[in-house]
Amino acid sequence: MAVFTLGALTTVPVSARPDLVAPPVWEALVASGIQDAVGVVEIDPSVSDTAATRATYGLSTDTLANCVVVAGKREGEERIAACVVLATTRADVNGAVRRRLDVRKSSFLAMDRAVGLTGMEYGGITPIGLPADWPVLVDARAAASAAIVVGSGIRRSKLILPGAVLAIVPGVEVLDDLAKPLEG
């Protein structure tokens, strides 16, 4: 059973608190058989954004991950993917992501569409439980992390899991060049 402690956060296995994840997240965890390998912790939803979570709970930026939804078009067909990168980096949306989606230009999906298509809350979108036809692109640095903090599908909790567990979620592709270090 997964119990993680990072900063001031201590998790319980998601199987003990399925109420702390969005329904599609719970369904995907159970379908993948990893509900006991992933931890969940309730947080104040007003500090769900990455910087506020880091500051409030005393987390290192290299343990925080962001999941963003991007899209592009090719011959009139929209192609959507989710990207998971550490908070110390940014997704290379118009480089690695554009090439992987095989589109001319990719950009972040509008908030209302991302929320509507994922069934998750804005600020809580997570790589687990996304539509099955979306690739989930994970930066190799996140996949190599001993433990990362990422959304749970809702703003009032966070998941903590080993990068290696995230790497085995159906639909996940680990890419070496998905992210670039933040400048400044």
UniProtKB/TrEMBL annotation:
Xref: SUPFAM superfamilies: YbaK/ProRS associated domain
Record GO terms (molecular function): aminoacyl-tRNA deacylase activity
Family annotation (Gene3D superfamilies): YbaK/aminoacyl-tRNA synthetase-associated domain
Occurrences of domain YbaK/aminoacyl-tRNA synthetase-associated (ranges): 45-165
UniProt protein name: Cys-tRNA(Pro) deacylase, prolyl-tRNA editing enzyme YbaK/EbsC
